[in-house]
Amino acid sequence: MRNHSLSLQTGALLTCLVLAPLGVPAQPLGPEEATRLALGQDPLRKRSEALAEAMDEQAVAATQLPDPKLRFGIANLPVDSFSRVQEPTTQLQLGVRQSFPPGDARRLEAKRVTQLGRALREEGNDRTRRVRRGVRESWLETYYWMRAGKVVADSKGLFRSLVGVTQGLYAAGRNNQQDVLRAELELGRLDDRATGIAQRLAAARAELARWVGEPAAARPLVDKVPDWPAPPPLGELEQALPQHPLLLAAAARVRAAQHGVGLARQQYKPAWMLDLTYGLRAGHNADGGARSDMLSAMVVVDLPLFPDKRQDRRLADRQLRAQGAGYAREDRLRELRRELESQYAAWLRLGERERRFRERLVPQAEQNARVSLTSYQSDAADFSAVMRARITALDTRLDGLRVQVDRLKARAALWYLGGEAS
Fold this sequence. Notes:
Elements: H1 2-19, H2 31-40, H3 43-62, E1 69-75, E2 91-100, H4 105-171, H5 177-212, H6 214-217, H7 234-240, H8 245-266, E3 272-280, E4 294-301, H9 311-377, H10 383-418
Antiparallel strand pairs: 1-2, 2-3, 3-4
Helix pairs in contact: 1-5, 2-4, 3-4, 4-5, 4-8, 4-10, 8-9, 9-10
């Protein structure tokens, strides 16, 4: 925690050193700018793009025939003399051998690899959504602790005033020393709370720095929450859920597995190979004429006569893998649907709580604190009631701020699940 805090302070200092000579203050960091910064430097998203392009290249290669093989050597060389002219069957041979995969294997393999590349590309799109969500949530959490620190700092003035009031009343003989000590104790506890909030703020900035870098995370934040639009109805989000990148990636992997099943079926068909060889002969025939050269053509065909231990097993393996990919997609769909329903319910309920805090609870808590202080000054209430009222007002403001931030986090989660309008 201490190292992260020092790093952020160093980033802030560097930012100031760069901008100060230019007379330009560091601009406040908003959630959308933070998102752009994070997307521009996210290595995992770039990794998915690179792997997807690699699969595209592999798909092109999969459609091609295997490389031909060049054969060169000597055949039928007599070992008693090692002479090329002694026997008429001795040949210097030069040949080319080309193999052909069985059936439609090349096309199916290309389709399988293409689907795997599509899955990686969709996983990259999911990473983009995750980065947006993570940055927004980190920014909101940093904003909460920044605002909480300001709320506590504002409250310290009120608690100092309470200390002054108790000291004045004690000097006038209208209360006892316990009230003074209680007021000073609560002021000290407030200082401790401010220290704890500063610690949490440093941790939140460190998490934000993981996304946007330390110099950007050290900048001040925009001093207001974003005004994001309300999400579409739950039914529309559920209809759009199958287009989530994770589900599209899972569907692509299902199709890749199905092409793998087709590829396994091709193994029941024979692969074959064509061999063309030119044989160069030396010496002369018995009649004195030169020996003619030889040309050979051979076709080699696989004979898959016993498939039960090989082809059948491979086909069963690919079929089970395809079933497993389908189950994985179904499970991911259920998981995303459950999260969608949970986040949408949270967004609705937190909206109700946010209005309740804004319209009723925070104003009532502040009014209760003022009335309690007035009653105490008029000897109509004890000091414990004053402190309870003031602490309740502070806690209510912080709770209202937490509800507001949590609701925006739920909105960020709904964007991740349902997508954003382009």
